[in-house]
Amino acid sequence: MRNLVLSLALVTTLALPAEAKDLVLPAKNPAITLTIPDDWDVSERDSEIVSTSSDGRVTLNVAFDVKSKLDDLIKESKDWLKKSKVGFGMKPTEQVMDFSGTPGRVQRYQTSDKNGKTLVDFVTLDASGSRAVLFTIWGSESERQENDADLAGIMKSVKVPAGTGGGFWAGGASQGGRQDAAKAEPAKSEPAKPAAAAGPATLADLEAQERATADLWARLPYGTRHAMFVTRKAEMYGDYEARPSNVFASGEKLLTYVEPVGYAWKPVGSDTYRFGVTVDFEVLSKDGKVLGGQKALLNQDLSSHYKNREFFLSIAMSLDGISPGDYVLAYTLRDNGGSANTRFEQPFTIKG
Question: Do 254 and 322 fall within a single domain?
């Protein structure tokens, strides 16, 4: 369950507990809304929500400020955690995930506190009014397992309110200054056409929406989502079955499913686009020492008449002869259509 928070966007069948409280932050012109179970201990402040699980073992805090002060928010959270002997000397793993239509970046630290091994996640989302939201989630693997359903329900409930001009997928105006243009020239603004939703849609409506989505995609940072160990090879986009554990037998293949996001489409000719990814990998010890790896392990180079976004990788890794112990499998994805790259890490254990 190490990938608990990183995989929250995949949970579709979990329901919130029958009793839960709906929260907005701040109360006026909210930057974020979420639902937390009633049996959690919750303290609401002007710019922060502090909550602790019913068993007192998992902490989930939410804070917001203007985007220019996001680094300060993270520093304050780290300083608070350091008082409980949480260390941040290691490099975090990173993921880009979707929270009800708003892209969010997740940084996970596999670290320790005064009680032993623990996990800390910093989740950042853009909100309206040039604001940013920071989630801090702290708890060990076993503590998170005991609060699995509650955590999944909370994070699935997270929304950037549409009425406050949040992300495009959340129903607000597109980022990048388009909201002002919509006010000045509503007849020319594609998002300002609610009447179209009242009647039958046309292919022209669909193509306009696809153009808008492609424009948003182009502004996404290059990253990954739905990166996980799986039980079998995927046959198509979205065809993943998460592996319930990251503990493997000696000689067992490590199967990974991942979806690159924010990659570039390179025009080829008049109506064709090239896109794809080149994959490097490394195997590291739990203290970060590189034990081996390979450049260009995999190269997926594709072309299409469309700006395809349903692109995935299914990677099978064999590590014959590796000794029992704790390791990290790190993949670096290099964008074939552009110059960006991203890296994600998967901790795993080989049992003796």
Answer: yes
